[in-house]
Amino acid sequence: MNSLPKINLERLQATIDTMAGIGAKDNGGCCRISLTDEDKLGRDQFVTWCREAGCSVHVDAFGNIFAIRAGSRLDSSVVLTGSHLDTQPNGGRLDGIYGVLAGLEVIRTLNDHNICTERAIAVVNWTNEEGARFSPGLTGSSGYAGDLDLSFARAIVAPDGARFGDELARIGYAGTFSRRALDPIAYVELHIEQGPVLEQYERTIGVVEGVQGVRWYDVELQGSDRHAGTTPMAARQDSFMALARITQSMRQEVLSIDPEIRFTVGRVSVKPGSPNTVPGFSSFSIDLRHQSAGLLDRIENVLAAKAHVIGVEEGVETTMRRTMVVPPIEFDTCIVETVAAITQSVGYPAMRMTSGAMHDACRLSKVAPTGMIFVPSRLGISHHEDEWTAPDDLAAGANVLLRTLVSLADQSVNQRGATAPEDDRNVPSQSLGH
Ligand code: GLV
Ligand code: MN
Ligand code: MN
């Protein structure tokens, strides 16, 4: 493994910079929201780079892009890597992008050194991971994993009124590639941590053992539009005042159950949106996260009850609908141990951890043995233009990815999937520290 070459950091950084120029924002961040014109430009650029690197490029019906570097075997087995090129509205330049472009850098490095792997390696750009425009997120990877119907996905309507299926066709990325054309023996996703833990513990690599569970909800509050000057306060069915009370009280309640919970209201809509009309309709989103599915179940019931009780007090009708469930995930032990062993063999300080953010890897873990590699995020900042990772850490993550992908692509496969290389097995986990 150590005889493998290192990736070219300058080239990786230049590639990230070019991608960050598409949808660039004034403060160094990026706005390339899924299926917008900027997303199309970013995809086109990625496809051009992949073709230049000698990959065959395919697009499936969810708009996922697969760039395949052939192996010496002529079968359909493949080691997958990748992440997403779409961003948050005020996104950084690394969330998702780093994983996709580091995958491309791995392929370029293998090309530079004429290294042929036994199995093919494919880099994937999954569609709409973020869910910032079309909800639920993880759309492309969910579709690929068989967790989301194509007809359901195509009908998703964004708050801007656009339909997922129409936008996919408009930007030219409604493809026909069949997922049965590939037989993934492993999926490994490289990502920035997006939290403060690696920096705090001064570790370069996070060996990701799993991901906490995520649930999204839409809550709608139906009151009644009234004149703001003539309607006495006690006679109102004010959907916004109900929303304000409900969200505050939900936050208090979930924190009292477990301070480790993550509870976010990130989107609010108030209608008709006129200063002198009592708003008759309001809605809000909830993003709820925890490592225990049981606790998420319990909290879900508590939230629904809160919304109902306060809704009745305020005279508004409430409905709460689940829009996404990503169960807590434990990654494949063989992949986790492979990443741990390779990280140790190249000498990067590492630790095992659980991801607070969700990832396409959550969906892929249903399809193939899956694992993730993290690198530090400065101050733990993400979903913000200040997102930043030290260049040496970007290189370290990509080097671990290179070695992991080659190791998996060249290894024999047992019934559960890819095995760790013989030399690297049984590395004591405590050596990676906590
Ligand atoms: C990913 O962007 C997440 O919401 O965790
Ligand atoms: Mn991401
Ligand atoms: Mn994100």
TrEMBL record:
Residues 211-305 form the Peptidase M20 dimerisation domain. Its cofactor is Zn(2+). The keyword Membrane does not apply. InterPro entries: Amidase_Cbmase, Bact_exopeptidase_dim_dom, Peptidase_M20, Peptidase_M20_dimer. Zn(2+) 1 binds at residues 84, 95, 191. It holds the Pfam family M20_dimer. Belongs to the peptidase M20 family. This is Zn-dependent hydrolase. It comes from Paraburkholderia guartelaensis. The lineage of its organism: Bacteria, Pseudomonadati, Pseudomonadota, Betaproteobacteria, Burkholderiales.
